[in-house]
Amino acid sequence: MKKLRWDILGYIVLLILAGTLLYHMCRTTNQAMMAFVVDTEFVGEYTLGDSEWKPLEENTRLSSFDGDFVLRGRFSEPNPMYVSFHLNHIGVVISVNGEEVFESGRASDEIPEMICGSYWSGWLYEEAKPEDVIEIRLHNPHNYGNAGAYEEFLNSLHLGGGIALENHLKAQSTPYWIVGSVMLVAAVAILGMALGYFVQRLPYASLLWSMGLLTLFMGGYILMDTIDIEFHSELFVFNTYVRQFCIMFAIMELIIGIRKILTGKGRKIAGIIIAVLGVSNGAALIFSFTNKIDFYDTSGYLAIVQGIASLILLWLCIQEYRQRKKENRVMLISNMILLLTVWLELVNARMNLWTSGIVVKTIFSLSFVFHLFRTIKIVTTNHKDAGRVRELSDELKNSRVVLAMSQIRTHFIFNILTAISGMCEYDPKKADEVLIRFSRYLRNNIDIMQEEGLETFSKSMEHLEDYIVLEQLRFDNRLHFVKQVEVTNFKLPPLILQPIVENSIKHGLFPKAEGGTITLQTQVRDDNIEIIIMDDGVGYDVNEMKKEESVGLDNVRFRLKYMVKGRMNIESSPGNGTKVTIIIPHKEAAL
What we know:
Elements: H1 6-28, E1 42-48, E2 54-55, E3 69-75, E4 81-88, E5 91-96, E6 99-104, E7 118-125, E8 134-139, H2 149-155, H3 162-200, H4 205-224, H5 229-232, H6 236-261, H7 264-288, H8 299-323, H9 330-351, H10 358-387, H11 389-406, H12 410-426, H13 428-450, E9 455-456, H14 457-475, E10 479-485, E11 491-492, H15 497-509, E12 516-525, E13 528-535, H16 547-564, E14 567-572, E15 578-585, H17 586-589
Parallel strand pairs: 10-12
Antiparallel strand pairs: 1-2, 1-3, 3-8, 4-7, 5-6, 5-8, 9-11, 12-13, 13-15, 14-15
Helix pairs in contact: 1-6, 1-7, 3-4, 3-10, 4-6, 4-10, 6-7, 6-9, 7-8, 8-9, 9-10, 11-13, 11-16, 12-13, 13-14
């Protein structure tokens, strides 16, 4: 069993910290009973920060980062009523004729002070008089994330009972409830399929897992960010922080998914970004336990990290896009759009250019629909492939036996035995050495017929070198072998190297009177392990190779594809030698 990777362990730690902090916040909050009351609008003047008093107009633009917002005047209805309003991480103090009559939310910057969160609150205006002067002071204790909170307060003033308010808000929230619910159901289905794919070792399992988690977190964010969530769950502290955690983990999962489709240095840089983001999120969760800083107050620092990460990843995706073929660019384009959306929402959280979250919800919902159809296509394709799993298993077993038997050729055995017999007279020691190699060569071929799975590169090289020593007897020192090995700690299907070398000897070096050299190289490139086998022989036309002579190489291709998701490229032409490149994904070949 493979060791648990550090990135997975870090991800699990973050989830545990988030869950623990959520439980802690819900246990320690002093949330009171909610009051759902009537509709109205405020008529009068306002001051923002230290500015002068100005008439309050319908198109007044406000930012909660410009200081306290103070309203002075009256409600349009002077009769006794309930006034309900939505507080988005801000505090409110209401005074009538200079006397404070109501306070809710965070009214100062101290931690903790009152209640902080996103929720509906209300004030019972029992003894309303036409001449009353009402003053409402709104205070934002945060430095990021709720720039439009003051405007949201003004737009949320309502008259009526709780049921009336709930029905009024339902029309706005129903589309989000539908989209969020569909995404959660789809996420569970996708994650279930991903687990099945992991068990069956089918392709796209990792992609489906990332897509399922991203869909799960975004679906949770959309549901918990609906304007009437308090009517379904009165635990607004729970609602608020689940929303925060969902968007935090959605961004992380987006970046993790992007890393999986990047290659080379881009993947390494993305890995570093994930580590930095994971540490930042972990630190924010841990510091929140101290009550010295509220988790919501850390969102400004997290936004800086997430914004920089989004821009770097956007640049990496653009670079990757330029290197990819047209048919492999769809995921990159989709991820670039999502990254740009995340960055714009992070900027908007500070500048209040549009309703917070509307862009990311829209783009993620459209992206979900696109990828849902893409997932259906993947599942359909893999369902057909799953039907062939047993068939392919039998074919792989048969191909292994056929290939092993093909290496034990009668004339080859007779030639080696004859050469050993001759050496016994003039070089018994050499004959004994060759006989040991020949015995080991035959035993390995027989063992391969019975064994399944991969073998180490070192074992493959031992078998190949035994074969080359035996062939050198026939070539009378005209066959030379050179190793330029940079990496050895990987696995590959058995009997992959010998058929390629045999092909080089037969078609490249044997027709050449002076013989030649076969060179074997290994290297790591773009998260792949490459094995390069070259010869300086006469070369040949790959397209004109006889069918019976290409069976062995086709067998190699087949086993590379279905055992390690690898591939083989052959470059050869008359007079220019032959170069064979085997490419195996590092994650498939890692020990």
